[in-house]
UniProtKB/TrEMBL annotation:
Highest taxon of source: Eukaryota
One Pfam family matching this protein: LRR_6
Biological process according to GO: cell migration; regulation of Arp2/3 complex-mediated actin nucleation
Gene Ontology cellular component terms for the protein in this record: lamellipodium; plasma membrane
Protein name: Leucine-rich repeat-containing protein
Length: 717
């Protein structure tokens, strides 16, 4: 920790200690990790008059006996009041003194007393710059106070990095007798300092076994008075009860947080009730975003939260309560609260209650929010069993809706209630219908002509639509005015005679949309197969025509074709894609049974590419290759090709960030132009594209190790 600097009296360097006293005091201060910022000889008044040495350290004041042995010490935070009446005497009152008389001591001159006042005030302000309440009280009558604070020795301390957090943290550790965590101060000084980061991410620190226990107390105490950080975040770390109560204490005092994320930390009903008490106690915190998701708060805890939300003064613009084990009763209360509290209603833009139980009553209460709100733009109710006949009201500002995991059937026209809700949300641009078990016959009802006309992002993954459903969907999407991002993952079940038609529909959609201003920018087509059960969702060789169809598609920016076990033949197609395509920026292709040979083909294509900036290595394929062939030669090949791929991606990313082009890019461009000139232009004929993919089979058998341009003469219509 850096030593604080104060302007010491001109006579300070005159030694007033004997050699033995100096040695004893230095040893004691060294053990306490304290510096000697001020030293003076004093005379204690009262029932036991005595002469002592008075030292001001970084965090404490010390009283040493003649001879150099410690009598007592007090942390700055233990001092209630420092009083100086201008008669060469200092009076110190301490907190929790159990009725003892204040400590009164005399000094030799008025100047000595003034220096003590200035030194303690300076160091307290340096360590706790954001403290407003419970601050050390310094009482000096006028005109003496003006005289002291107008002298040249009256300095204003410079606030350290991030609102002086490091010094505050170290001082709090000293006060609580807890060993500081070095990662905390290092992170503040070397990562956050000098940036625009104002969020304190508690989950960043490495020594999680310490931050989840009582060692969190000084961090929370330092944050509670820190004026720099305006948000606190911790996700997916189960904390001890003591650590959670430290966070609750932080919320009870902080005056600066606008965002609070306590997602998946182990909150239950009782700790949630304590958190609500802290909110009720601290009306001054300017909270705008609250995330309590993924905590087992349960119905009783959520009921308490709902009652609080009815009267909270916080103008919340984001509220996340997903997966809180809440039933319909508590969700009804939550819905009524956000619908009727004007502070929330006028500001709430983002609401996530997915993973709880809405059912009839909960759906009805949130319908009131949809009817009254003019600002709600994101509404997430996945896996919550909503009843759309109750969600009859429409929110005109809604742009993003998540209904994932809620089964859609044609029975009793349930899907028609949902379709009516979606189509009345006229500004809806993002829709998640994954894992809804959508029947094929419902696809046309949901996505038919004239429906969801402003939709830009659609996630319809894991619905097992099959070849027929994909064909119907893609035919609609090919003529859709706005769709830009499409997730079709996990929809290919058992291969049928209609598979070729389904592939043609995807290819036709990509090609037709690429000719318009609203082309497909992101296509997610991973298999959704995780390695367990049936692998029927894998496209295997059927994936090749889709890859070949985007060779010259300049509008597609992201493509995910993971998990299809297509083999090295796919690697050859990817290599050619990378060589030809000048628009693609992100590509995922793991779990496709690609060997070191296939990775080499991808590397060759990548060497002629300047636009790809994200291409994660296929870890599953590399692991499988090493498992089947653990020889040093195979390991060397995989290591070398992986390093070359990563280096090329890094070069592309650096060029994109810097807005410059490497000197050899002109050579790459010329080579690329020659390659394209020798290749047959892409023909918008899906059946021809599928047929010519068979040529890849013979291509992957050539000796790539002895071929200078292995991809240059690969021609695919």
């Amino acid at each position: 920790m850096c030593k604080p600097h104060i302007l010491l009296p001109s006579w300070y360097h005159m030694e007033i200690l004997t050699t033995i006293e100096r040695k004893n005091i230095d040893i004691f201060l060294g053990q306490k990790n304290e510096d000697e910022n001020y030293l003076q000889r004093i005379e204690v008044k009262g029932k036991k008059p005595r002469k002592l040495f008075f030292i001001i350290g970084n965090n404490r004041i010390f009283f040493f006996k003649v001879g150099g042995k410690i009598e007592t010490d007090h942390h700055f935070l233990d001092i209630l009041e420092l009083k100086y009446d201008g008669i060469k005497e200092i009076t110190l009152k301490f907190k929790n003194d159990n009725g003892k008389e204040p400590l009164i001591f005399g000094v030799e001159t008025d100047a000595d007393a003034s220096e003590i006042v200035l030194a303690i005030d300076y160091l307290f302000t340096l360590n706790f710059p954001g403290m407003q309440s419970n601050r050390l009280k310094i009482t000096v009558p006028e005109p003496k106070r003006t005289e002291i604070y107008s002298s040249p020795n009256a300095l204003i301390p410079d606030m350290g990095a991030c609102g002086g957090f490091t010094l505050t943290y170290f001082s709090m550790c000293d006060h609580m007798n807890i060993q500081p965590i070095s990662e905390v101060s290092w992170h503040i000084e070397n990562v956050i300092s000098g940036t625009l980061i104002r969020e304190f991410d508690y989950g960043f620190f490495f020594k999680k076994e310490r931050i989840i226990t009582a060692d969190a107390r000084p961090i929370m105490a330092a944050l509670s008075i820190n004026p720099y950080f305006n948000s606190f975040s911790i996700k997916d770390i189960k904390l001890s009860s003591e650590c959670i109560f430290s966070i609750i204490g932080l919320i009870n005092q902080n005056l600066y947080f606008t965002k609070l994320v306590l997602n998946g930390i182990g909150l239950d009903r009782s700790t949630t009730e304590k958190l609500i008490e802290a909110f009720n106690s601290n009306k001054m915190i300017p909270l705008r975003e609250l995330d309590l998701g993924n905590n087992s708060i349960e119905d009783k805890g959520m009921m308490v939260l709902g009652e609080y939300l009815k009267v909270t003064p916080y103008e919340l613009k984001s509220l996340i309560l997903n997966n809180c084990s809440a039933g319909k009763n508590s969700m009804t209360v939550i819905g009524e609260a956000v619908s009727n509290n004007e502070n929330i209603l006028k500001n709430l833009k983002y609401l996530d209650v997915s993973g709880n139980r809405l059912e009839n009553d909960g759906s009805s209460s949130f319908s009131k929010l949809l009817e009254r709100s003019k600002v709600l733009s994101t509404f997430l109710i996945g896996n919550s069993n909503p009843q759309f006949h109750q969600l009859s009201k429409v929110c005109i500002s809604l742009t993003k809706f998540d209904n994932s995991g809620n089964r859609i059937t044609r029975k009793d026209n349930i899907h028609r209630d949902m379709v009516s809700f979606l189509n009345h949300s006229i500004y809806l641009s993002s829709l998640n219908l994954s894992k809804c078990q959508i029947p094929v016959e419902a696809v046309a009802d949901i996505f038919g002509e004239g429906n969801l006309i402003k939709l830009e992002t659609l996630n319809i993954s894991d619905n097992d639509l099959g070849d027929e459903g994909i064909t119907i969907l893609c035919d609609f999407m090919a003529n859709h005015q706005s769709i830009r991002n499409l997730d079709l993952s996990g929809n290919f079940s058992k291969r049928t005679k209609a598979r070729q038609t389904a592939i043609e529909s995807i290819v036709n959609m990509l090609e037709k949309k690429s000719k318009t201003h609203n082309s497909i920018r992101s296509l997610i087509l991973n298999s959704g197969y995780t390695g367990g059960g049936s692998s029927s969702r894998q496209l295997k060789g059927d994936l090749l025509p889709i890859v070949c169809s985007v060779f010259y598609n300049g509008s597609l920016k992201e493509l995910d074709i993971s998990g299809h076990s297509s083999g090295d033949i796919l690697a050859a197609a990817i290599g050619k894609l990378l060589q030809c395509n000048t628009g693609l920026e992100t590509l995922y292709f793991d779990d496709n049974s690609i060997s070191s040979r296939g990775l080499t083909l991808i590397k060759f294509g990548l060497q002629r590419n300047t636009t790809i900036t994200q291409l994660p290595l296929p870890i599953k394929d590399i692991a499988a290759s090493l498992k089947s062939d653990a020889t040093p030669l195979n390991l060397q090949k995989l290591t070398e090709v992986s390093n070359e791929i990563q280096q090329t991606i890094l070069d592309n990313y650096t060029n994109k960030i810097q807005g410059t082009t490497l000197t050899n890019n002109s050579i790459k461009t010329q080579s690329l132009s020659r390659s394209r000139a020798n290749s047959t232009p892409l023909v918008i004929d899906t059946k021809s594209t599928i047929a010519t993919c068979a040529g890849l089979n013979s291509f992957i058998s050539i000796d790539i190790d002895n071929t200078i341009e292995p991809l240059a003469n690969l021609i695919v219509n």
